[in-house]
């Protein structure tokens, strides 16, 4: 999040406090890396745990409510997507308001370019082949093209009637709504906005100063909204020693999400995970009854993947597969058996076999971009699913690792896309190998029981 332009960081905190009313509760300094689009926030005195570090007034945030008084007022009510309205606002501040923007000091330090996978060229995208990100990125790229064409022609709810007035989003931005600018704005929304709950609404918000803090996966520094003073606060639940870089946790995100949404990876990411989808075909035997049993137990494989981590299988995976692989007789047992218990030796062997084949296939796919792109046939697959809009990183449920590792505090340079792809591949391989080893041990134990 703290990647930014080469403009000096000095004076940024002063601007935020004087112009926006941001309160910095402890002496901080923003330090840039010479010649690089990287910066971080360092404390100049000890910061004790359970204290507020920074407070940002609600009116200083950019949200869809900021569209009031702009040509884009009313777009959300007219059915426009939140991300698209935020993109239009970013471009409006960047190209139309310019010096008049109340957020000019912050707009000036936003990155000139991003490194999320939607910015990868076709050759760079091949580096991701076999990983969980390849299919998602291909689908997102196609969806972005569709969304951009729709946005260009998006009619404004209340077109300005004066001569030269705007009737579409493209008109309002006076030629600055290009595919390149739209991608830049999307990269900003995905990587620099946080979700804030206020007055019963969850809104994405860009918060000045928050942007300057780098990601620390094990950091206990979090954000939260306080109604009493209508401010978004950055709160630390840990001690920070004077001179150290204060880091903010973007959430327990695996490298696939970090690279997709933020454009960087972590070596030895403690929250590395791999998504495994286990959907049933509607025409499968016993589909309705099997689906009902899973839904009754809070499992919907059509909407949520199962997460594989360095700690093992998703606890819901085996119970779901047992139901999916059940025969008519076993299904009757499942209806009378507590959720999670085995349904018999035949069923358990079938579940382990299909899972072993799926994991082995997923591991094979990740050998490198030059290997054949195998697919896992049947109900279990490592093929990632793409959605129309990106997942909210603040509510991501993936990756429940959490093993401490000092290497996790380092990041791969965003520009080194080859290194980032290899890091992603190796991390997913480690997770899959650990899960495959567990399944092999479990299968071996089942065979011994039969003998």
TrEMBL record:
- Would the keyword Metal-binding be found if you checked this record's keyword annotation? no
Region entry Disordered, spans: 366-418
Q: Which InterPro entries match?
A: Rubisco_LSMT_subst-bd, Rubisco_LSMT_subst-bd_sf, SET_dom, SET_dom_sf, SETD3_SETD6_MTase
Keyword Methyltransferase listed? The answer is yes
Q: What GO molecular functions are on record for this protein? A: protein-lysine N-methyltransferase activity
Q: Which residues form a coiled coil?
A: none
* Ranges for domain SET: 26-251
Which top-rank group of organisms is this from?
Answer: Eukaryota
One of the protein's GO biological processes: methylation
Q: Which UniProt keywords apply?
A: Methyltransferase, S-adenosyl-L-methionine, Transferase
PANTHER family assigned to the protein according to its UniProt record, in alphabetical order: SET DOMAIN-CONTAINING PROTEIN, UNCHARACTERIZED PUTATIVE METHYLTRANSFERASE
Q: Please give the name of this protein.
A: SET domain-containing protein
Provide the species name. Answer: Ectocarpus siliculosus (Brown alga)
Give the source lineage, highest ranks first.
Answer: Eukaryota, Sar, Stramenopiles, Ochrophyta, PX clade
